[in-house]
Amino acid sequence: MQIAPLPSPPPLATSSVFAAKERPSHDVPMSIINRPLPSQLDEAKVARFMEDIKAGDDFTPIEVLRCVAPDGQKYYFAFGGCHRFEAVKRLKHEHIKGIIIDVPPSSIRLYLGASCPF
């Protein structure tokens, strides 16, 4: 009995599904970004990022999900990029480079469940 070879696996993704298309980055005000899930931070990584930012290094923009709630209010959420976000926050910068991704309210409810603000 011969066993057929396994098919080749699909190529690995090298970036986020959201960032697959060319999207411009923006200087997003830190004050508008909600981070509702606690981050698991590697303190050495945050410190290294802070030093790199101070030295002028550019980082990949974080993904910021923009959602318009049923009442028309805009919400901005970031679920990834926790080390970059924390480094910028500790350096007391007012803005962070981000790619704005428009999502429906149902996508945010999927992440937050009963904690969703709308």
**Coarse shape:** extended
Enumerate the spans where pLDDT stays under 50 for 5 or more consecutive residues.
Answer: none
Helix content: 10-25%
If strands are numbered along the chain, what order do they take across the biggest sheet?
1-5-3-4-2
Secondary structural class? alpha/beta
* N- and C-termini, Cα separation: 59 Å
Rg value = 18 Å
Count the DSSP helices: 3
Query: In sequence order, what are the helices and strands, one letter per element?
Result: EEHEEHEH
Quick one: biggest sheet? 5 strands, mixed
Beta-strand share of residues = 15-25%
Mean pLDDT: 89
The total strand number stands at 5
Characteristic key phrases:
single chain; 25% helix; 118 residues; five-stranded mixed sheet; 3 helices; alpha/beta
Task: Note down, in words, how this protein is organized.
- The protein is of the alpha/beta class and about 120 residues long.
- It has 3 helices and 5 strands; from the N terminus they run E-E-H-E-E-H-E-H.
- Strands 1-5-3-4-2 form a 5-stranded mixed beta sheet.
- A hairpin with a 5-residue loop joins strand 3 and strand 4.
- Helix 1 crosses helix 2.
- The mean pLDDT is about 90.
